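Fold it.
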Amino acid sequence: MISADFIQQTKLGELVNFNSIVSDVVIDSRKVTEKSMFIALPGENTDGHQFVIKAIGDSAALCVVSKEWALQNSITNLPLWIVDSPEKALQELSKKWRGQFDIPVLAITGTNGKTTTRAMCSAVLQKKYTLHTTSGNLNNHLGLPLTLLKMRGKHTFSVLELGTNHFGEIAFLCNLCQPTAGLITNVGHGHTEFFGSIEGVAKAKQELFNSLSETGTSFINLNDELISQMNPQTRKIRFGINVEDADYTGKVTNYDPNGCATLVVNNELQIKLKVPGYAMAQNALAAIAIGKTYAISSNDIVNSLESFDSVNQRFNVLETKRCRIINDAYNANPDSTKAAIDTFSRIAVPGRRLFVFGDMFELGEQSHTQHEKIGQLISNAPIDLLFTYGPLTEITHKTVCLTGKTEARHFYHKIDLIAALKDEIEADDTLLVKGSRGNKLEEIIEGITQ
């Protein structure tokens, strides 16, 4: 419960007509309940201040508004926290709230695998701890504060996901959440439009390690060249597959027909994963290193990871009436796309492999080269038919057509792509769907299964 006294301790703005408590904090007026604090933020399409009166009518206990709005509107009897910036108030409130809790806080960032690794770590850690963790994709300058404000006295461990596409963002988020440990899953070609190069990506991710105190713990992925070169001034736990000089060394001994790996760690733990791909084995190894570091038993680690299922839209295998569909449509960059193609190639399929590939965004000057490289990769993979969608993947399409190894078709409109898929798909086919979030390729899956 956040009290009026606690709010006033932030020394931000003025609290009027309020001397009670709030039990939750929301930035969407549609989610207001009794005892909610509604924070009016400017959005992409509308300003939250337009919904302040409605939020109070819907029983919001308190609304956070800008001084500008308060000066322009009648505020008599309205329960308000009037501040220079509602966004800053949210962030400062969350930082102060986090400061009340003396528990381990593990922050996870990286180009790929953040959400899956967080979910794996959570599955392992919850065997011993009462867990507080990020939900959905609340990992940015607004989502993280909302997550922190859900921390409660019952929680004994926190696992947080941090996202970034600009320099300084990870450092800013760490200032809010004050992590005691950090994990960088990997450094890849994501958001190079803003970071300039993969080295720039590494610099941005390293802000996490740099934010830890000397008593903190850094989990170092030795399979990533750029991460392995980092030398944070903290306790260091090193892990890697087929790396001998590590605290936790993993070996993939085999893959089953579904492409799921058997992972052996330190010649001691053996885990048969039920999620496919080499990348999943890497994510699991990170979760094992973290579980062991925080005294989770071997049996609990094995049981947690062997029962772990894919996170939504991250290589989810769907058995539909039309065909088998692999939904990997949440996002895409060059490295995650390579991993998806590798996993797709390992899976035993009864018929053809079909691939719907949407544009990869935010690659800047590297966009042409990276879409071309994916085309070369597809040409050398056991993919029978490629469907590309969007202006950028036309580069991929042309690259594939030049090799003549894989049949390829290009589309600019989803309705045409859906129609072509419906005409082409056979019951024994397996269809992989992947593209950047802005493509919303889940609409393709919905279109062909309706």
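Residues 278-293 form the longest helix (16 residues).
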